[in-house]
Amino acid sequence: MPVNYQPISPVTHRDAGWKRPSRYFYAAHDVVVPVVMAELSHLLTSMPLAFVHQTEDAPFQLVAVQSLQPGLNVYVSPDGRWLGQYVPAFYRSYPFRMMPVEGTDRTALCADQTSDCFALEAGEDDQRLFADSGELSPALTNMRTFMEAWGKNRITTNARVAELNEHGVIVPWALHLSQGQKETLAESDAQPVRGLHRIDEAKLKSLSGEELTSLAQSGALSLAYAQLFSEQRMAHLSRRYQLHSEWHRHLANNDSLDVLFAEDNDDTLEFDFGE
User: Fold this and answer.
1) Domain boundaries, the chain
2) Which of 54, 95, 131, 268 could be joined to 58 by an S-S link, Cβ 3.0–4.6 Å?
3) Up-side HSE of residue 5: CA atoms within 13 Å toward CB?
4) How confident is the model over 164-178, as pLDDT tens digits?
């Protein structure tokens, strides 16, 4: 869905309001989502991790994999519910985001002004962006603090990922998408999926003791094994593909989606990923 992130100001948005989203349609087409190391303990229970980069020369980034099929996030139900035990922090700041200010090293607090969660005139149930004094409201101040903490942790995470790449242990991930929409590690008659990378455990184990100690001390080694352990969560993607396919059948029969998606209906949003 199209977005339009614009900087907010007490002049333009004096009377504007916002509310937390109750559904995740804004994430429904994302196949990956940026994540940070502070989230790993939550992510490992439900989502596979990988590394991606935009070009061969660009640095790798840590992401959670939400699908292998373009344009479909299988963690979002057809009616917008989140299908999982943990919602990545990147999504929990919506409709806000810290965006870079062109020509500077600063960021600005921006809002997606196309969002149903944002209104230039605050409604009765909306939270105000600004207090009468012109300062950020307490709720939005907390949100900005949350986003700034995530941004700082992303810098740390990117540094650890760069260390792993410098040691040559990040390699292309040989994944395939079968006709049944199920992810497999290798399948000769399936469509290959390109762009995702993983840790090569053999190369990791072949590093010298000094190199492994250095990676352990920085936290990069923990990240490497977290990615390896998360690979077993690929089975979660297959199950969710099946749920999305079954939805079409239930829709044709006018069945409720509540039973179909009940096992994964967890909309708990906690700002607890840490520093």
Assistant:
1) 16-170+209-264
2) 54
3) 13
4) 999 999 999 988 766
